[in-house]
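Re: the request from the purification team.
They wanted to know what the chain is likely to look like in 3D before they choose a buffer screen. I agreed to run a prediction and write the result into the notebook, where they can find it.
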Amino acid sequence: MSREDPKINIRVPLWLKDKLHQSAGASGRSVNSEIALRLQASFMGDVGMEILPSAEFAEFLSNQARVNDFNSAVMTIIEDSIAPALKKAIFRGEREFSVDIDPMVQHFYKNFEFAPIDLVNEVIDTLRKAGYSAEADSTEIIGKF
């Protein structure tokens, strides 16, 4: 992309602007490049799309697929391990739950090469964003509500 390319101005909700800035920062791209790549990705299946995408766009798509796989792994861990432990604690009248997610972490490490610590940290962050007090002892997740 060059300075000679046409410019457009758009209005977006604040949350979307924040997400674009975070994504651009994480990828090392400018916000403008991030938006352009994401728009280009939205047209990928359209007839007439370039047969050979730019190397930058191919890298973007590959990274997005990896991010999607990682997010799916985290959600699977939450749905299959965390949620049942939480429900069990609720039905027992307890305000704390713990579960060892090592088998799932090892599965995602073996099949997708996701670093176990990254998965554990993202599960902890997700729980905290939902309002839980959460910590990890290796792969054992301890949550309080």
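For the purification team: The radius of gyration is 20 Å.
Please add any questions underneath this entry.
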